[in-house]
């Protein structure tokens, strides 16, 4: 046993003629080439992404104050040029630049809604290609100083201007009654009150005054023309008063025919002419009153 152990020990202590073994650590071969390729591709993508980002910032005009036509100011957002909104716009106030007009353009219509806290529509304005519609409890038009020019609600329509001018060729049609203190035509124009198929009634608690200061006044009707005063009188004040179409009473052909007539009144209020005589001849022409 002893010689064998010594031999073994002696063998283990002898220096090796082959030298120490070295193990290589790392990526070599095709793995190394693939890694370099992916690193190079990643660098190219980073550079392309950076170039695209710079190009987008340049095209969209990004600055520290905003982007494009949009600028962020102390008072809010400022838009320059034409702007298009594809979704509803909610804003407290919309103003144009000083000295410039504000335009709203749409292919169909422009709708402005006023909502309450429960998002219920209180007032609505719709401007479309066929009509302009406004929905609300009351509609008012005022001057810069605050004077009311026009007002309309469910009860009445008020015109606050000093003069209401209607330029229609057929005039103004009122299917019901009209109440006004004064109806006047333009200077050198005629005023015509006409009811083609119905009657025309003018009433006033203190009287109706009709003046034609620079022309004639005509009253024409189909059947009857009635001038009625319940508590007062009817006064015809003119230099000449003519009744050219009054009926004539009968007269006797004997004697000299006179060209002087007297006006007679029947019990029913009808007027007729009777040939004047030495006395009243109305009694002998009572047949006209039948």
TrEMBL record:
GO cellular component: cytoskeleton; sarcoglycan complex; sarcolemma
Keyword line: Cell membrane, Cytoplasm, Cytoskeleton, Disulfide bond, Glycoprotein, Membrane, Signal-anchor, Transmembrane, Transmembrane helix
Record's bilayer topology term: Single-pass type II membrane protein
GO biological process: cardiac muscle tissue development; heart contraction
Positions of transmembrane segments: 34-57
Subcellular location: Cell membrane, Sarcolemma; Cytoplasm, Cytoskeleton
Major place of residence: membrane
Family to which this protein belongs: Belongs to the sarcoglycan beta/delta/gamma/zeta family.
Name assigned to this protein: Sarcoglycan delta
Species the sequence originates in: Monodon monoceros (Narwhal)
Gene that specifies this protein: SGCD
